[in-house]
Write the structure tokens for this entry.
Amino acid sequence: MKFRRIIALIALLMTCALLLGGCVVAHRQDSSAVSSTEDAQTVRSDDSLIWWQKTIAYEIYVKSFKDSDGDGIGDLNGITSELDHLKSLGVGAVWLTPCYVSPQADNGYDIADYYNIDPTYGTMEDMETLIAEAGKRDIRIVMDLVFNHTSNENEWFTESRLSADNEKSDWYIWADPKEDGSPPTNWRSIFGGSAWEFDATRGQYYLHTFLPEQPDLNWENPEVRQALNDVANFWVDKGVGGFRMDAITYIKKPAEFLDGTPDSSNGTVSIHTMTANTDGILDYLHAFKSAVQDGTDIFTVGEANGVSAEDLPDWVGADGVFDMVFEFGHVKIDLPDEMNWCETREWTLPDFKALFTASQETTARTNGWYPMFLENHDQPRSIDHFLPAGADRVAGGKALAALVLTMRGTPFLMEGEELGFVNVSWPSIDDYNDVSTKNHYQYAIDEGYSEEEAMAGVHRFARDSARTPMQWDSSSQAGFTAGTPWLPVYEDYAVYNVASETEDPDSVLNWYIALANLRQEHTELMTGDYEEIFHDNEQIFAYIRESEAGKAIILINLSTAAASYDPACVENAELILGTNDKNEKGSLAPLEAVIYEETKN
Ligand code: GLC
Ligand code: MG
């Protein structure tokens, strides 16, 4: 607890100093300084923001970032050796995918021991070194807390499954079979198949929202909640800067377990429909916040599938449970049924813009904060996901970068996004590693789609595309490992790698760096409010960011055709950054992005 007490003391001293100086600084956790009325979208000064609101966050897929010991698997020492790359991108928070002890049924999202590092990734000492070395560069480490479930090899579970009356028997969700011996309900897990697994010893089923190797914890049990608070506090004491809360919308289950209306020809219904965002969940999360976060300077970001813009005020903001939540609206824009990768939905740019604008407006109004992201380790690469087929990858990567780095909120980048990575398209399902990709493929085949259709879905949505090794240089295995990588390095590595892109002034990487620097120089890009313009324009995403520091007008052509707009909005403005050498006000080349700033007179 030492670390937290020091933080609390510093906070107290700073408050006293500020009060003595007669200066009032709005702090978002100080409810007296925060109003949740309609007009709270006031002009903010730079110092009203907290460290994590002013930085850029970067997700590292630990397995794929950098291998230091030649076993083909990324590790903590590998990350420590590449911190300068992150520093040059302006990154101040690094989210590590789970690196705890795990049998890796879901690449670490199945945790067997929350208090130790998996030996494949290193030791606790390596973690302490990473935290310290990152700290020297003003970078905080963010841990992924997987609290909806554990691994089936976690001791909590191995004990729980022994009998119905041991100390941990109620730590997971056990239920009796239906009379005919079948699972208690027709719920289908997120990764496919029944969400219930039979355990012969207990003669009961246990619930798993994801894989059978990922049994769900029973949050109703106060001992479970206490054990999870202890885990989180252990990491706070290690000096981490925040937590990403995995699959957090599923922790609360309905009071009664009932069959749902089937949404698949096999008679099952997605567990998401039955359990996401169940009433009462916020009580648990408020309690977590006071037990873990209060009195610290860490931030929390929840993975919130099932939370929409209207729900946001309950989740983030002055009275919310987290500082930020990752919403799913835009990532699912093309996918009506998450289980079925063969049926996609058409969408238009105004649909896409409306999702962001709704969240931007709600978070701004409630003084909440927004994590701006297009990619993570579960999603396709954004160039393939959000741009028209055939879009030039460098121009497209830059256009999307402009969006991520100029919206209101903390940008979250996925490793490789800054290099312009695209999806892999391997020929056979056997080439893929991710268990959920394999299950989605099987589901398609079972539903009667052809092999070709099923593979088309895999090429479009496979999580492996976000997980191929990071590309450092054009040497063998892209400089990721001296051994054989656990997942193949993508074939484009000779061109798209950190070393080559650093040399090339027109690279996607140098554009990211330029945008990161621009945020520092024109701080309205961090602090300003957000106002969308030209909403009905089918090609251009445009908005204004304004604070007392200035007024920026951002125009991004997300289409592959030239576009035009009414130049009056930039009449008294000058170009401060653009993807092309020149820009004529009122028109944009395909995939061109420009940032204008109003000149003061
Ligand atoms: C989250 C993670 C995903 C994982 C799942 C189960 O959605 O982002 O990678 O498979 O939870 O833990
Ligand atoms: Mg290694």
Q: What stands out?
A: Residues 2-20 form the longest helix (19 residues).
